[in-house]
Design brief:
InterPro entries: aa-tRNA-synth_I_CS, aa-tRNA-synth_Ic, Rossmann-like_a/b/a_fold, S4_RNA-bd_sf, SYY-like_C, Tyr-tRNA-ligase, Tyr-tRNA-ligase_bac-type, Tyr-tRNA-ligase_bac_1. It comes from Nesterenkonia jeotgali. The protein has two domains: 8-241, HUPs (Rossmann fold, 3-Layer(aba) Sandwich); 361-438, RNA-binding S4 domain (Structural Genomics Hypothetical 15.5 Kd Protein In mrcA-pckA Intergenic Region, Chain A). The protein contains 19 helices and eleven strands. It has helices spanning 22-28, 38-46, 65-79, 109-123, 141-144, 149-155, 162-166, 169-175, 183-186, 188-203, 215-229, 266-274, 278-288, 293-305, 311-325, 327-340, 351-360, 373-379, 386-394, and strands at residues 34-35, 51-56, 83-88, 136-139, 205-211, 234-238, 363-366, 398-400, 403-404, 422-427, 431-437. A six-stranded mixed sheet has the order 1-6-5-2-3-4, sandwiched between helices. Strands 7-11-10-8-9 form a five-stranded mixed sheet, with helices on both faces. Helix 11 (215-229) links the parallel strand 5 and strand 6 (234-238). Helix 12 packs antiparallel against helix 15 (311-325) and helix 13 runs antiparallel to helix 14 (293-305).
């Protein structure tokens, strides 16, 4: 399988040479939450090249923010000379790892196969498939689809102890819930352990990592390799990304930040990073960028001394959006953001970006023949009444496409509509809304 990276940003990425070891840098960046043997792992990562893997289950058509943590960790380890295996779970995706609350909806093999292809294309954007440390893409359907149930139970199942499986955190939570847990999801940890065993046998893979919420599944693999092969292999759990207030990012929480531009526009993606709080932004820079310790320390001083400049947030938003969507898309987003607040030409914002803006702002649909200034302000919710709208206009605080409104009853001319479809309505300096031509 030929999978050359499509991302020019990879060539510029470097680990920080100020650290004595990769392990030290991973810890400083907050990427080590739990591991099988920290001292042994530090030695292994500082030694001869090893093969390591991270798995991604196709439970949706796109990867999201949580996956980006793993992809960037894969890249950091690859930059140290080690060889990654990117596993997309064509078989485990048919099952789904247990969720804390309820059973997953099982998707058809056709849907899962389509998602496998989509995720593989996304993954090759973040790690290199060229050179001495070239990555290899693998699919666990390749080694599971030919195994019979009897073979699986005899050759793999015999190494697992039900008592140990029941003690896994996620299993224990589900057993104590109203719904319980099906045998299908209960068996997921065996399938993931089987993956590690197969990759150990086929590629001499000796390290698996993933989110710390997967720790029970990760150690299922290390235990299976130990029992079946008598070998010691390693596991590493990265922390779950949360806000300083404890809020979790992730699609299970209904607020996923997708890496696919069709599901989360570059504009929305950039705004997400730009809006990170002062309490969170430095940790985000450590995890999601390749900026050095010195560069991040300088940005941290800026947060402390001049937080109103939001230099750290702008650096974070530029780095991550450029990585995911490219520098050209990021530049367009920045220009659009400036134009929306009167610091550029609105006419130069392309239509897809305006659609993205609409999803982020209050918006309304108004027929062109009814688009008076008063109607625009009221229907978008920028004011509560016609009287309030007239007062805002009289006070000089209402704008359409950054032009001050003077006549509350005048219809907006056809030539004013952006792309013949949109109007940007503003009250004061920061209260914005977008109108679609109805």
């Amino acid at each position: 399988m030929s999978l050359e990276s499509t991302n020019p940003a990879l060539a510029a990425q470097r680990n920080d040479a100020s650290f004595e070891s990769l392990w030290e840098e991973l810890n400083w960046r907050g990427l080590v939450h739990v591991s099988t043997d920290a001292a042994a792992l530090e030695q292994v990562l500082a030694g001869e090249p090893i093969v390591y893997y991270c798995g991604f289950d196709p439970t949706a058509a796109s990867l999201h923010l949580g996956h980006l943590v793993q992809l960037l960790t894969m890249r950091r380890i690859q930059l140290a000379g080690h060889k990654p295996l990117a596993l997309v779970g064509g078989s485990t995706g048919l099952i789904g790892d247990p969720r804390p609350s309820s059973e997953r909806t099982l998707n058809t093999p056709e849907v899962v196969a389509g998602w496998v292809d989509s995720l593989q294309k996304q993954i090759k954007h973040y790690i290199s498939f060229d050179g001495e440390s070239a990555a290899t893409m693998v699919n666990n359907l390749d080694w599971t689809q030919g195994v019979t149930a009897i073979e699986f139970l005899r050759d793999i199942g015999k190494y697992f102890r039900v008592g140990t499986m029941l003690k896994k955190d996620i299993v224990a939570k589900r057993l104590n819930s109203e719904e319980g847990i099906s045998y299908t999801e209960f068996s997921y940890q065996i399938l993931q352990g089987f993956d590690y065993l197969q990759l150990f046998r086929q590629y001499s893979c000796t390290l698996q990592f993933g989110g710390s919420d997967q720790w029970g599944n990760l150690t299922s693999g290390t235990e299976l390799v130990r029992r079946a092969e008598g070998a010691q292999v390693h596991a590493l759990g990265t922390p779950l990304i949360t806000n300083s207030d404890g809020t979790k990012f992730g699609k299970s929480e209904g607020n996923a930040i997708w890496l696919d531009a069709q599901l989360c526009s570059p504009y929305a993606f950039y705004q997400f990073w730009l809006n990170q709080s002062d309490a969170d932004v430095i940790d985000r820079l450590k995890v999601f960028t390749f900026r050095t310790r010195e560069e991040i320390a300088e940005l941290e001083r800026s947060v402390q001394d001049a937080p109103f400049k939001r230099e750290a947030q702008r650096a974070l938003a530029w780095d991550v959006t450029s990585l995911v969507h490219g520098e050209l898309a990021t530049t367009k987003v920045i220009e659009a953001s400036g134009a929306i607040f009167g610091k550029g030409e609105l006419e130069e914002i392309d239509e897809p970006t305006l659609h993205a803006v609409a999803s982020e702002l209050p918006h309304a649909s108004i027929p062109a023949q009814e688009a008076t200034a008063v109607r625009l302000l009221v229907d978008t919710g920028l004011v509560k009444s016609n009287g309030e709208a007239r007062r805002a206009i009289s006070d000089g605080g209402a704008y359409v496409n950054n032009q001050k409104i003077t006549d509350p009853d005048a219809l907006v001319a056809d030539s004013v509509w952006l792309h013949e479809k949109f109007l940007l309505v503003r009250r004061g300096k920061k209260n914005l809304a977008l109108v679609h031509r109805g």
